[in-house]
Amino acid sequence: MFWGKQKAAIAGFHPLHQALVWQRGFSATQPAAGWAALIASLHRHAGLVRRAKWALPPRTLDVLVPLILELCSDLGPKGTLTVAADLRGRDVPGKTGPSRDLPVRPPVRSATETLTVDPWLRVRAELRDGSILELLVVDRTRERRIAKRNPRGKYKAKRKSKSIQIIKVRRRLAKGAQSRVPAAPPPAWIGVFVREGERRSVLATAKLHRLPQSGQEQVDRILTVATEPFRWTPQAGTGQRSES
Amino acid sequence: MSEGHRAAYVAFDRFPSAKGSAVHIRHMAAELFDRYGGGLLCVLGGGGLPAYQREGGVEIVRFGAVVPNLLDRAEAFSAWVADRLAPHRDTLRLCHVRDPWGALPALSAGGRLVYEANGLPSIELPYAWPLAAPSTLAKIRDLEGECLRRAAAVVVPSQVIEAAVTSRGAAPERVHLVPNGADPVRPGLPRPPAAPGRYLIYVGALQPWQGVDVLLRAFARLADLTDLSLVVCSSVSPSRARPLRRLAERLGVEDRVTWQHTLPHDEVAAWLTHAELSVAPLTASPRNLDQGCSPIKVWESMAAGTAVVASDLPVIREVLGEHGRLVPPDRPAELARAIRVLLEYPEAARDLGRRARQHVEEGFTWKHARARLAAVYDRVEGH
Amino acid sequence: MTPCAVTTGFFTLGKCGQMAVAGCPACGRALCADHVADGGLCPECAAARNQFGHPAAAAAYRRRAHRHRTAQEYTDVGWYAGLDTYDRAPFDPGAGADQDYLDDGADALVDS
């Protein structure tokens, strides 16, 4: 049997780790200890599995793991973290919408535009200050195919694609939690909406016109957007919320 | 674990050290911590100082990270201060800072901000860092302006700095003048064993704007007074004195100049007391003219009862008044002549020294400075 | 009981608060049994010495590094002026008027 040892090693991994290998994604809710077990299992991957086909999907170790680690440190003792990750990439069925024809004039013969929407990460965390943090990261790609013909009958086809990323973070504050408008506005690329109610919720959205080029940049972008809702409550540090 | 502190003093400066600023920090921080029954002192470490120290109610924490670039270091210090202040957010009533990088974390730390402007980095930094671009200094200037505008009170040691901070947007009614001071030296201090017979003395750091080179050139003109030496009590390390030593060699006075480096504060007082004259040859640079300062060397010379010969600058006139000899800045010949005249009339020099000492005792000891600072704190709290 | 004074959390900063059993030899803060990192240091001191063996030290390092990288984003953490590489380069050790860089503490921003 081929790859038998590696297959056996995968069978010994954390179930979510296996889901990442076979389905390139997972969706799960568990407390911090469960996520720690998953991360420990992920760190064993490179040593045991060499086959490229079974490698961890991109963004696993450089984006997903740091994010889970940071969010787990904010979970309450009974809080859970829900992560729905879809790391198959954008070129899979179901993510591409119908293509649309754009109006053209000669020499362009046709121009079609296709939108691909890839919501690859959803997170929901119940934090220790009683608030709930929700996070959504979507990659959107617009692809245009243009065909033209010159007077001598020569055809040319061109493709242009542009990717953007949308990051949305909502934090629903705990009931009766104090909040205040931050002294300084957020950076220009982050928008904020506040919904009043019994539980005030602060939504921060950002649209990046260029996909982050590295895992670290991606994590920094997500965490920077996620910082905004936390500026709406008095800075912690004196919270002294003991976990015991 | 300690209770939250009610006061914090933040200084991007090593403390304790041999420099004038350390004396200043000691007295200002003492007033603050006496008032609030202790507090947090955030300063620079290094040089073998402990990172953490507790003295009664006062906690001293020192920033020890090694960050080569000065601006990076200032920012790292800022972040570090924010970290140190965060646990005291609920209790903190007053933060006393000395520079923008201390002020930034203090502004969001809860409590009111007292900004003590002894100098302005946007004017002072280019002397040590000549490659700094004007646009960079403009940014730093904006930063200063922002901090000065948001401070509940700005404390300045001289009227020249007062004008400088007001021009940066500090509200004039919130700017308070608290001149530096010096404690009168107790009489009968023994003569330092290393002291030469008759000597002139210079005390302080060796930056170009201090004008030590002018003093050396003036001293070269006093070659006929063979029994006279010059003592330079530098508050910085010997390596920084190297260019000046080279100058002394070129002028042929190197064997008549005694160099002392980073002496403890009380030894400096002994050196000052037994000197014929103390010289403060500050140059007429923008640093001294536009930014201003309140040179502690002049205050301490006055308190030691030693006659002072100093450059005729607004900042010096403010300190010295009628009680010293003023000479045009950057003019070695004039400086030499003034020194020679005072040396020829020792009674006049003694009289100057006595009057200067009296002037200090009557209104400009550190006790007086602390009382003035206390009044500022009263006003800040009253609001 | 002395509570452990190690900072926990990424957004919701707080103190650990469990019973302390040791003190950090470098900074003196109280540490509980879970937070004693390499060499008996607290996680932050360990991270400052590049010892990331303890998960809390790695977390402290990441928290600090992230704050450092993104300090320019939010104006209210204090970087109004946004000093960039060009602004910083003249303040490198070799660029000073005094070419001998010696850490003798004479590097204050202002001198009184």
TrEMBL record, chain A:
Highest taxon listed in the record's lineage: Bacteria
Protein known as: Uncharacterized protein
Organism of provenance: Actinoplanes regularis
Automatic annotation (TrEMBL), chain B:
InterPro entries: Glyco_trans_1, Glyco_trans_4-like_N
Iron-sulfur keyword on record: no
Coiled coil regions in record: none
Any single Pfam family the record assigns to this protein: Glycos_transf_1
Origin: domain of life: Bacteria
Keywords noted in UniProt: Glycosyltransferase, Transferase
GO MF: glycosyltransferase activity
SUPFAM superfamilies: UDP-Glycosyltransferase/glycogen phosphorylase (SSF53756)
Domain annotation Glycosyltransferase subfamily 4-like N-terminal: ranges: 20-181
Domain Glycosyl transferase family: 198-358
Record-linked PANTHER family: D-INOSITOL 3-PHOSPHATE GLYCOSYLTRANSFERASE, GLYCOSYLTRANSFERASE
Name of protein: Glycosyltransferase involved in cell wall bisynthesis
From TrEMBL, chain C:
Superkingdom: Bacteria
Record protein name field: Uncharacterized protein
Organism listed in the record: Actinoplanes regularis
